[in-house]
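seq:
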Amino acid sequence: MNAPLDHFVMEISGIPKRDLAGMPVAFQKAFGPEAPFASDLPELVRENEVPLPYRGHRSINPRSRGSCRIFAVLPDLPTKRPRIYGLDSQVEYHNLVITLTDPNVEQVHEQVGPIPFKDENGFPANHFIDLLVTKKDGFRIAVAVKPTGRMESGRFMRELIQLRETMPREMADELRLVTERSFSRTDAFNAEMYLRFSLTHDPTVDDRLVHFLETKPDKMTICEICQKLGAGGRTFRCVVRAIYQGSLRKLSPGRINLFTEVVAT
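struct:
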């Protein structure tokens, strides 16, 4: 039998304070702020809101060995209310969040169908569109999402060609294929973060940020804004929303974090 663990020896009793003032910037970025951001505001309490139900035409089996199944609560574009989206894979999910942040998109429907068409042998067949995207100018795009590893046989591409040729024209103006190579995972990460933050409104800090930016024309890091705004962690969410809504421009590449540089537009 193994001897019992001596937790007094194994566990850390306290984290020593660090003074990073003389350390290189890379170390300061790696460790981040030494203390929570000061705030003169209480914690934000969000009222519970029942999300709109899943609207897809096809039921999604949550059990799968080949890919993940995702039911995500994200904004419904016309109503701005939370809605449940059902996706068959992570690639579909990443494409969805990027599509929802496109300012030219009016509405997105997932799992649309069945759409009748004729296969390569001339026999009747059906296909479900992963995303049906409606632009603000009325242009409609039927999006088929598939990982590149699942397209090696060529069968799916042949099916899409037949679908494009024979599907009803009133369904969509364009049929588009999307794979994991069609977008950046960094862009998907940032878009997902913004969409989740957009479900929680914080007009108090939003107004405080607007007034702050009127006097700060130079570039700043998000960390600097959080330190000066006096709203604690609520500032970061507001800054991310401001980047996507146009009052801030992101200067640094990569994922949005505390050390991302931004400038007022």
